[in-house]
C-alpha cells in the first residue's frame, strides 16, 4: 500500500516519478517467482526502498516501479496498530523485503478496510476481503527464508501488496459505480501530469 493522501498544502497527490500509475498494463500482470538472488533483484529492492522512503508510504510492489519481479516491501509498524491514523513516524518503521511471498494461514474473518494505493494517487477504496491476521512465508533480499505472523495494519498492507504481485489492485475491489469514478479521476491525473 499505499496510503498516501493528498498533500494538504498543495492539494495534489505526492508522487515519485518512478511510480507506475494505473492504467499501465504491468499493474495487471502476475509476477513470476524469483529464481535468483542476484544483482538485478538487489537493484529492484534498493529502488523499492528508495521510492517508498521518498514518499514516506506503507508498502510498494515491484510492478509499481515497472519491474516484473515477485517482490514487495512494507514499512512495518513496530506495534500492531489497527488504524493508520495511529501510525508511527516512517523512520521508526522496519523496511522489510518479501520475495516470493505466500500466505500460509489467515486469522479471523475478513474485515472492511479503506485503502489507498500509490498507483491511484488520492483515491480511497473500501476493501472487504482482508484478514486481520496472516502468516506469511517469504524470502528476504539475501535469499533467507522466513515465516512470520502479522496482524492489524501490517497484515492489511501485506495483503494489499501481495495482491499487486497477482495483478490485482484496489480497482478490482471497487464496485461498478466506484470503478467508473476511479477511471475518470485517473484520466484527470494523467492529463494533469502531462501538463
Ligand atoms: Zn497499491
How do the SSEs run, as a string of H and E? HEEEEEEEHHH
Low-confidence spans: pLDDT under 50, at least 5 residues? Answer: 2-13
Which class do the helix and strand fractions yield? alpha+beta
State the end-to-end distance: 27 Å
Overview of the structural elements:
The chain has 195 residues and is an alpha+beta fold. It has one domain (25-194): Peptide deformylase (Peptide Deformylase). The chain has four helices and seven strands, in the order H-E-E-E-E-E-E-E-H-H-H. The protein has helices spanning 39-55, 152-165, 170-173, 176-194; strands at 59-61, 71-76, 94-107, 111-117, 120-130, 133-139, 145-151. It has a five-stranded antiparallel sheet with strand order 1-2-3-6-7, with helices on both faces. A two-stranded antiparallel sheet has the order 4-5. A hairpin with a 5-residue loop joins strand 6 and strand 7 (145-151). The protein is globular, with a radius of gyration of 16 Å. The chain starts with 38 loop residues before the first helix and ends with a helix. Residues 2-13 have low confidence and may be disordered. The site of zinc ion (ZN) has 7 residues, from helix 2.
Amino acid at each position: 500500500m499505499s496510503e498516501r493522501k493528498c498533500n494538504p498544502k498543495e492539494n495534489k497527490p505526492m508522487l515519485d516519478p518512478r511510480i507506475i500509475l494505473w492504467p499501465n498494463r504491468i499493474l495487471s500482470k502476475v509476477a513470476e517467482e524469483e529464481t535468483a538472488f542476484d544483482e538485478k533483484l538487489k537493484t529492484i529492492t534498493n529502488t523499492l526502498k528508495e521510492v517508498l522512503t521518498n514518499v514516506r508510504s506503507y508498502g510498494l510492489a515491484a510492478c509499481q516501479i515497472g519491474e516484473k519481479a515477485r517482490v514487495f516491501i512494507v514499512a512495518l509498524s513496530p506495534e500492531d496498530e489497527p488504524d493508520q491514523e495511529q501510525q508511527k513516524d516512517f523512520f521508526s518503521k522496519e523496511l522489510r523485503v518479501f520475495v516470493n511471498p505466500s500466505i500460509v494461514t489467515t486469522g479471523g474473518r475478513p474485515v472492511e478496510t479503506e485503502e489507498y494505493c500509490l498507483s491511484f494517487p488520492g483515491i480511497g477504496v473500501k476493501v472487504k476481503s482482508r484478514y486481520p491476521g496472516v502468516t506469511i512465508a517469504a524470502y528476504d533480499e539475501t535469499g533467507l527464508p522466513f515465516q512470520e505472523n502479522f496482524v492489524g495494519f501490517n497484515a492489511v498492507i501485506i495483503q494489499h501488496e501481495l495482491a499487486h504481485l497477482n495483478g490485482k489492485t484496489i480497482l478490482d475491489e471497487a464496485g461498478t459505480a466506484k470503478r467508473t469514478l476511479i477511471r475518470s479521476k485517473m484520466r484527470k491525473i494523467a492529463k494533469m501530469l502531462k501538463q
